[in-house]
Amino acid sequence: MILLGGFSVFWMYSRGQRRKLALIQDLSAALEQMAGEIRWRLTPLPDAIEALSERDISGHYFLNVHEYLQGGMPLQKAWKQAFQDLPQELGTIVLRMEWGGDLERQESSIRYVSAQLQEWDVRNRGELRQREKLCAAVTLSAAGLLVLILI
Amino acid sequence: MNGVGNNDESNRFDEAVKLLPLRWQRYALALRSEQKTVTEEFRLRCGRCMSVLMPEGEVPLGESGMAVTSGDLEQMCDKITGYSRYAATETLRQGYLTAEGGFRVGVCGTAVMDEGVNTNLRNISSMTVRLSRQRIGVGDPVFARIYGDGKLDNLLILSPPGLGKTTLLRDLIRLLSEGTESVPARRVAVVDERGEIAVMQKGMPRMDVGSHTDVLDGCPKAIAIPILLRACNPQIIAVDEITAAEDLTAMASAANCGVALLATIHAADLGELRAKPLFDRLLEMGVFTRCVIISRRDGERTYEVEEL
């Protein structure tokens, strides 16, 4: 029971972490898409952001940005408000986005944030896998020990 | 002259007000409804009070001592471009932006020159929001007079700036596209280079340009006309503001294909038109056979149709 409980807790933690990683991957992909839109089609940012609001995982963040913009809020503020409930470390990365400047500067800023998210994803995915392996090893060891004790 | 209902006038005015910096909007909204109906432009100059242009002249708005700041103008430019000045570089270097709703916003500032070409504007010093309005029916008195021998003449619309060339052009496009009891509907193709004629928004025209009208938005005329000829099989091509020699060449090609033409030019009258070498050449080419001259007499617009 204790083992089962411990395993359940770790499983829920692991699931939460995987959701976070899926969000990071989707955000990074969305930003890459935005950078491509503005580079190759010179799409205005509000239109590019609106198009991203249809994404499955991160879409609601971009939808919020779009709605704030429609309400007259400046872009920097709308971005900050929409992403303020992200976990702290993620929020710090996403809020590094700088809006304005010429095409090169804007594209660079978007791609920079996307690259930072990808780095975070790779680093934390590796750590999560290590933790999962460790947990599996500990659980099996504990189970084995319990069996020995019972015997 | 027939006009759209007061409700539409009010809506257009309110749409234009939303382009203004927040702190100036309430002064514009406080105008009386009859003033809103005749407002032609909002003018914002750095260091000066905002003003509105009405038929009697510029009227200042705002409290005593209030002045437009460079921050106001930068904020306005950001809002109009959707924080995407890179997407508006082409028009910005020509000194204007096309705002949502089809309003032309003139921009003055310091030109950024690169090898003799103006590539951008910085340190914006003034902005002018021109209120464009659709006036359904303004083309009615002209429509019957632009046919010669039952055939549509290639038509030029002339007037000084701000007298309603685009408004008349738009209504003639609508009438030609829809047809009347005596005149069949025509396939009209519009080169809407500045986005002011049809006011396209996500593929839909916000102004009524008729049911049989195709619009090529944001494309220079010399490039757009061959595209339309190939893609849309038009019977009529309509363009706004002929300004360049390549525009004339493209229009002559279209006329040689049997397509009727509608175009506008900045000129008060035929004399002024002939005084400009480019347009003198246009008249020599004989592409256009009729013109409508818009002028203002006793506060009212008049439309004189003449043969060329």
Question: Layout of SSEs?
Answer:
The complex is a heterodimer of chains A (151) and B (308).
Chain A: H1 2-40, H2 45-52, H3 59-70, H4 75-82, H5 88-94, H6 103-150
Chain B: H1 6-17, H2 22-29, H3 33-38, E1 41-45, E2 51-54, E3 57-60, H4 70-81, H5 89-92, E4 96-99, E5 103-114, E6 117-130, H6 140-143, E7 147-148, E8 151-152, E9 155-159, H7 165-178, E10 188-192, E11 200-201, E12 204-205, E13 213-217, H8 221-232, E14 236-239, H9 245-256, E15 260-266, H10 270-275, H11 277-285, E16 290-297, E17 300-307
Parallel strand pairs in B: 9-15, 9-16, 10-13, 10-14, 14-15
Antiparallel strand pairs in B: 1-2, 1-6, 2-3, 4-5, 5-6, 7-8, 11-12, 16-17
Helix pairs in contact in B: 8-9
Description of the molecule:
Chain A has 151 residues and is an all-alpha fold. Chain A contains six helices and no strands. Chain A starts with a helix and ends with a helix. Chain B has two domains: 125 residues, Beta-Lactamase (2-Layer Sandwich), CATH 3.30.450; 168 residues, Rossmann fold (3-Layer(aba) Sandwich). Chain B is built from eleven helices and 17 strands. In chain B, the strands form four sheets. A seven-stranded mixed beta sheet of chain B has the order 13-10-14-15-9-16-17, sandwiched between helices. In chain B, helix 9 links the parallel strand 14 and strand 15. The longest helix of chain B has 14 residues. Chain B is globular. The N terminus of chain B is likely disordered. Classes of the chains: A mainly alpha (151), B alpha/beta (308). The interface between A and B is medium-sized, with 16 and 13 residues.
Give the fraction of residues assigned to helices of chain B: 25-40%
Poorly predicted residue ranges of chain A = none
Portion in strands of chain B: 25-35%
Q: Greatest chain-chain interface?
A: A-B, 16 and 13 residues
Structural class of chain A: mainly alpha
Shape of chain B: globular
Low-confidence stretches of chain B: 1-5
Radius of gyration of chain B: 20 Å
The CATH homologous superfamily of the largest domain in chain B is termed: P-loop containing nucleotide triphosphate hydrolases
CATH class of the largest domain in chain B: Alpha Beta
